[in-house]
Amino acid sequence: MNSEMRMTLTQFLIEERRRYPHAGGDFNSLLLNVALVCKRIARKVAAGELGGATGSASNVNVQGEDQKKLDVISNDLFIEGNNWGGYLAGMASEEMEDPYQIPECYPQGRYLLVFDPLDGSSNIDVNVSVGSIFSVLRAPASDRPVTVDDFLQPGTEQVAGGYAIYGPTTMLMLTVGNGVHGFTLCPQVGEFMLTHSNLQIPPDTHEFAINASNSRFWEAPVTRYVDECMAGKTGPRGKDFNMRWIASMVAEAHRILMRGGVFMYPRDSKDPAKAGRLRLLYEANPVGFLIEQAGGRASTGRQPVMNVKPSSLHQRIGLIFGSKNEVERIERYHNEPQQHDEPNPLFTERSLFRQSV
Ligand code: AFP
Question: Which one of 3.30.2270.10, 2.120.10.30, 1.10.10.10, 3.40.190.80 gives the CATH number of domain 207-347?
Fold first, then answer.
């Protein structure tokens, strides 16, 4: 079906709005502004070296990570593209330590926008797919400056969640609580066209994604699950598995939405100060919303990730999501009484002077 026959994102949102006769249109306008920002970021990413925006910004962000030029550019595009519309009471971003206050010259609105402007940016310079992740919450108030507490809502409070993936094609994946829908950017028309309606994640899979270089830091249930996958046909699972790791969560989430799979970035002992690598508010929650709306499951390993009450704006969390039956299996392993495994002899303290037994 060519693009003239397909529904645009605008048409889709208007159709959706008909379910809420009293809706004033602000929500749709906000989402269309976000989509426009993603189109602008897509052009910056596509320009690559020719756009002069690759490489490091020679700065460390609030996460303590090397900030790429495109991280800063993408963050600025999100701010400038959304601060004027009158739909937001405030914004929060992976790239900003504190919440963003809407300038007094613009009206405040009833929503909060939370985003990771460019996820996977360590892949930018090697031309691997990256993305922008966004989440929309209701603002507790729109007649005062926003506070951090306004944002500390569990993922179940989200009214929209989605991402744009900047890959061979640019796509926008969106849920407003009524299924997950994929829109492909038509370069000729410059519109996101509905190409994937009501995506459903297969409940079973033979693909798992995890950064295996962290295996010595994993908790026992994760080690058990991965070992069983690696054992393949001859092991307890009775089938072979494939492993993937792109180091760009948006790309992993996209693969899982399109064909199933399981993604794990679990809590581990690598840095006890961090309860995981991924951020709850603007990575785990919006992706979790999409995954659950598509019939999958998104978990901390012990509970649904969207049930977690955030304690801070940049809180990190262990995240496991994908095909429902696999994630439920991993949760079962976490919730079973844990045997105190013998320490792995490879990693115990080694000494030239053997202890007397
Ligand atoms: P960057 O945005 O710093 O590239 O991090 C991407 C990410 O947050 C997530 O998208 C990946 O799944 C994960 O980090 C990759 O982490 P490792 O580099 O430890 O594999």
Answer: 3.40.190.80
